[in-house]
Amino acid sequence: MNEQDDRTLVRRCREGDRAAFGELVVRYQKPVYNAALRLLHQPEDARDVAQTTFLKVYEHLDDYDPKFKFYSWIYRIAINESLNALSARKPFAEVSGEEADEAPGPEQRVAGEQLNQAIEEELMRIKPELRAVLVLRHFMHLSYQDMGEILQVPEKTVKSRLHTARLLLRDGLLHHGAL
Amino acid sequence: MIDPRQFALIHGEIDGELDNEQRAELARGLLADPEIRAVRDQLQRVSKAMEAFEEVEPPADLHASILAALPQRAPLRRRPSVAPPWVAPAWRYAALIAGVCVAGALLYQTVSGPGPAATDIAGTIAPAGAPMILDTASLANGPVSGHFSLYRDRAGLGLELEVRANGPVDVRIAGDGHTLEVNGLKSADQPGTAPTKVALPGFRGGETVELTFLMQGEEVGTATLRVPAGH
Fold first, then answer.
1. Which residues of B touch A54 (CB under 8 A)?
2. pLDDT of B35-85, one tens digit each?
3. Within a domain: A47
């Protein structure tokens, strides 16, 4: 994404140009939707979060500080909305132990596709704050610095969470015979 | 048991963060210890698998539905180009008169109004500014132990942490969409170490506050506190 173009679009939005906001939606709907989907694991919830994120961006565009990257700001809103959606969920909406028992055994989980499926399941067992760093790093390919800006924590904390999250994910995959 | 340093090097390699010296250090560890090789292989496999996930296309009508929802929402907030009504002289006088009336009523109530004698209320209220403890938790029998209190004082919600450990402890404090981290807490056993107080701006009543304790980046304990509803 071109940061300069983002700033131009934001300026035009602030001047009341709705077409410019439509252009920002085109640019960011895919990463925002995907981040929400990886965190929530449910397409309908991800869609709701993406929609709420853009509406909040629109409402609070005057609060955006151009000294920060626009995408950091919009991803921060998306991550916070996703975490809010997760905390509002009833416990049974999470991956349950029953589903885990129905998962394929070790002998069936050899191919990459099965590893991917196992990763998606195990991600949902990890605390949302830790899942968020995995999503930002491995699915959105962001730097420590960007992740720190989005999560509003120091880079050191980002690294610490990332290390913990990776090990938890690995442990879960090992435990369920997927690795 | 793998040294935390080796774990850090493996993660650093995955993230492309190692310099030549660190790469050589990791290489020596890999040669010497098959467990390190196994962990590195597992973490690399997991990381590469995640990197290879394909992006999903958002719903085809998402763009249209976002734009369609905009008119129903509050319009963009514009900075006022003219003075707001309360700046006009007539409104300023009205506000002044109302303010004087309210102040007068309060003064009358304070000086002459009915109320219990001072002796009736003595001892029933905390001293001004004294924190009210809302919840407490303790940890024992682990690398980290200690006592943790959630309180409210004039400044808002806060947390008091008294930890005991053999080294510096990082604490991650997470609530409903809020996360804070306090790094390098010293053990309360050390002379001159007072409990650490942390303000919790943005935390609300009815929330769970989760504490995660880390040493050298590794999670070594957790505790949960609750902000009672109405606080």
1. 66
2. 999 999 999 999 999 999 999 999 999 999 999 998 654 445 554 444 444
3. yes
